[in-house]
Amino acid sequence: SVWAAFQEHLRHLGLQDFPCGLGSWNKSRCDARRSPRGGQLGAAGQEEDVLLGEESPEVLVELLRDQHGPWALPPACSPQDQHLREMAVLTPELSHGSSIFQVLRSLRITGKGVEEVDKGLLQLQQLEELILSANQISRITSAHLPRTLKVLELCCNAVADLQDLCAQPPPELQHLGLGYNQLCGPLQDKYLTVDFWPNLVSLDLSFNNFTDLLGLVSQLSSLPKLRVLVLQGNPLALIPTYRGFLVDSLPKLSILDDIHIGPDERHQFHGLARQPELARSEARVVVSVGEIKGVPDPRACWQLEAGSEAPVITYSYCVTYEF
């Protein structure tokens, strides 16, 4: 599950081990924070820490930032991971218990074989960005997502149905990434409307199996804040008028398939939305066979001498393509 992968990730970060967390390297400083008299230590207190063999927060943070040091994070870790470790130095009490869950705003769990998005995520009450790309998620329930989410990235999974995700989706979501999944239209088109995503600005549906351009556009046109759309890799993108029809049908769109829509292009395709017959769900495919191996060469019959009594053998080949 996502929560199990997150807990394992926290263990790898070592938030309770030197130079993070609570220990002999910062004992007096942490005791002072917990003392009834409270207050932060002044210059004298910091000097006393050094005399006791402890390290200042600045020194501990430098140890974490040293890319060649023994406490450096692996290159694959995110800036959020580094931020958590530095926070565990500056405010080490947050590294114990569930305190850290209250400050985490971004969570990235990619390529970990995650299959389930469980309700443990609800403990992250301030989470705004959730990236779960390159896992094995086939079903995601909105009841297990924090309501504070603004970014949800599910690229390269096995999502084939949006019904559970749209039961009660995060109301403030601005980006939804569903590229490289198994979504098919028109059954899933109905979940891509303002009724479910009133604040959606960016939508990635690339490399799925959407085929009905007219039906999909009619649903997407209800999203009032949509500015970025990615549909490349779907069968509907093979339609000759695909880009022009989308540009004219969604006048508020700024970027389509990672290409900016300029005024000239907008003017070029003006009026195309009123000609739906041009957006036919058809495609013309030209296949050229460069070389075939493992069969007799039909050119051998050309080498027969004139007047030869040898029989002429004709070869016929059938090549079948499945789409």
UniProtKB/TrEMBL annotation:
PROSITE patterns per record: LRR
Keywords, ordered alphabetically: Leucine-rich repeat, Repeat
InterPro entries the record matches: Leu-rich_rpt, Leu-rich_rpt_typical-subtyp, LRR_dom_sf
GO cellular component, one term: cytoplasm
Cross-referenced Pfam families: LRR_1
PANTHER family with a match to the protein in the record: LEUCINE-RICH REPEAT-CONTAINING PROTEIN 51, NISCHARIN RELATED
Protein name, UniProt field: LRC43 protein
Organism for this UniProt entry: Hemiprocne comata
